[in-house]
Amino acid sequence: MSNKSLFLLRHAKAASSTDLLADQDRPLTDRGVKDAKKLGDRMHKKSYSFDLILSSPAIRAITTAQLVANRLGHKQKFLAVEKSIYLCDMETLIDVVANIPKKIDTVLLVGHNPGLSDLACFLAGEPISMPTCALLELVFEMKTWDQISPNSLSKMHLVN
Prior knowledge:
Elements: E1 3-10, H1 30-45, E2 52-55, H2 59-72, E3 79-81, H3 90-98, E4 106-111, H4 115-124, E5 135-141, E6 153-158
Parallel strand pairs: 1-4, 2-3, 2-4
Antiparallel strand pairs: 1-5, 5-6
């Protein structure tokens, strides 16, 4: 049996909603940028690497993904925007993960609450808090992503 690693990353701190700015266009705050860079540095020190980074199309999620990818030295070709991740529910996230190609072993999924927290809790089988810029590593014993379930979870680690 082979291992697949799924990292769930909630976007960093974003600007508050305003009447002038659509939710999807909200940028990161200065603190959010700093937190994402710090997380990227910690991930770099631990030699994290991803075959694929999937991000919500929201500016705050894409920026978080790019800042982390830059700190890890990842090329932009490994970063894909997945429209269905934007403010979706847990079931949609499971569908997104289940459709990841078999050859991909390590994925970073950058998204939003409550869907991300709901997915983390479901897969871990316990309450998991996902504040902004929280990173959860989940390792599964499975050959293909469509086998993802709490039963195939072999290791879990909250990075921050």
